[in-house]
Design brief:
By secondary structure, this protein is of the alpha+beta class. It has four helices and three strands. The chain has a three-stranded antiparallel sheet. The chain is rod-shaped, with a radius of gyration of 21 Å. It starts with a helix and ends with a helix. The model has no long low-confidence stretch (mean pLDDT 83).
């Protein structure tokens, strides 16, 4: 009986450590970044690990014409969406590294979804 209690206490300690590491990992997501481009690099969007747009660079030639506002808007959306796609694997790797050795490798366990 005491063996089970000891196992339970050990597991609780591990959960606290996992929570602590996940909190630290969450707090440092803002230091991660990924960039997406569209229009052959004429629009570049950079996002952080908290999925916030941190930089938007638009080639000056795109702004000069003024005629193609819709195209510019589409390019901005495309670049931002690409940056969001690019940050996903970086976030996942960051969170896996934060809990390395604490959790068993469970297929289908997505730590990113635990982050909200």
């Amino acid at each position: 009986m005491f063996g089970n209690l000891g196992d339970m206490m050990g597991m609780m300690g591990k959960m606290k450590e996992i929570q602590s590491r996940m909190k630290t990992a969450q707090d440092s997501l803002s230091t991660l970044s990924a960039t997406g481009e569209s229009g052959a690099g004429m629009v570049r969007a950079t996002v952080n690990g908290q999925k916030q747009l941190t930089s938007l660079v638009i080639d000056p030639d795109l702004v000069k014409s003024g005629d193609d506002r819709e195209m510019l808007q589409d390019l901005v959306v495309a670049a931002t969406n690409k940056a969001m796609e690019n940050i996903e694997p970086i976030i996942k790797a960051h969170l896996q590294q934060a809990t390395e050795g604490l959790l068993p490798n469970i297929p289908g366990l997505d730590l990113g979804s635990m982050m909200g």
